[in-house]
Amino acid sequence: MNITTSQPSEDRKRHGEHILIHMTYIAKNVDLDSGIELTRALEYWRRYFEENDIVSALVISEGYFVQSFQGTRPAINTALEKILDQHSTIVHNIVNIEEIESRQWNGFLVKHLTSSVEDEEHALKNFSAGSDYNPYLMKSSQIESFLKAVFENAESN
Questions:
Q1: Which of 75, 83, 23 is nearest to 51 (CA)?
Q2: In 38-136, where do the E strands start and end?
Q3: What is the pTM of this model?
């Protein structure tokens, strides 16, 4: 019996590869320092996302991560499982997951917010729920707006 795979596009649709997913999560960094370990982790994820056709926007500030990534449904599911498995000591909170028509970001974008006036304006004045930056106190709409504001010049639209 000869089994052919003459319908690869049908097989792909069967697993959801034709559906793009946008997922945003927040996390508190408790297991990586801010130096070489964090740099290695970021490089690992940059390569992983590139190999799996996932785009990402990540903001790091005061030990918090706010990350949005976009890719096919199976790729996002696999990446999320891998993130949760490899960084099990970090408390992750998914704040948004939705199907999208096109990718918003281009590549693997990282912004490390500092105490500069511009960064403080993004983090505190426009999007924080209190006087200190804490994404756990922000609503999902605030988090999405925050990411958009931080990366407004890097969008691929």
A1: 75
A2: 55-61, 64-72, 92-100, 108-112
A3: 0.78
With H, G, I as helix, E, B as strand and everything else as coil, classify residue 145: helix
pLDDT in tens, 89-138: 566 788 999 999 999 888 999 988 876 656 556 555 566 666 677 888 88
| Residues recorded for the chain | 157
What CATH number does the domain located at 16-114 have? 3.30.70.100
* Residue 71 vs residues 34, 96, 138: alpha-carbon distances, Å: 27, 14, 25
Q: Taking the domains of the chain in order of start, what are their residue ranges?
A: 16-114
The β-bridge relationship of strands 108-112 and 64-72 is unpaired
What pairs with residue 97 in β-bridges? 23
